[in-house]
Design a protein that fits this description.
The chain has three helices and no strands. It is an all-alpha fold and 69 residues long.
Length: 69
């Protein structure tokens, strides 16, 4: 689903309505507003999965070690 359709459906706002120009600023603002709708759930999901991955893999599964940091 496109950003335009998600924004219309979830925020009841129209974006990208100008045919001649596309605004990356408008896209970024809409993206942030959509994120705010699910921020708590998303952060909880990430925290739970990060903890599960650490329990399964220890620190060996971390991105930093894979990159040699």
């Amino acid at each position: 689903m496109s950003l335009k359709h998600l924004t219309k459906q979830l925020l009841h706002q129209d974006i990208q309505i100008r045919e001649s120009r596309h605004s990356p600023v408008e896209d970024a603002q809409a993206t942030m507003e959509l994120y705010k709708l699910v921020e708590v759930e998303w952060e909880q999901y990430l925290a739970q999965n990060t903890l599960k991955n650490k329990q399964l893999w220890g620190d060996k599964g971390s991105t930093q070690e894979k990159q040699g940091s």
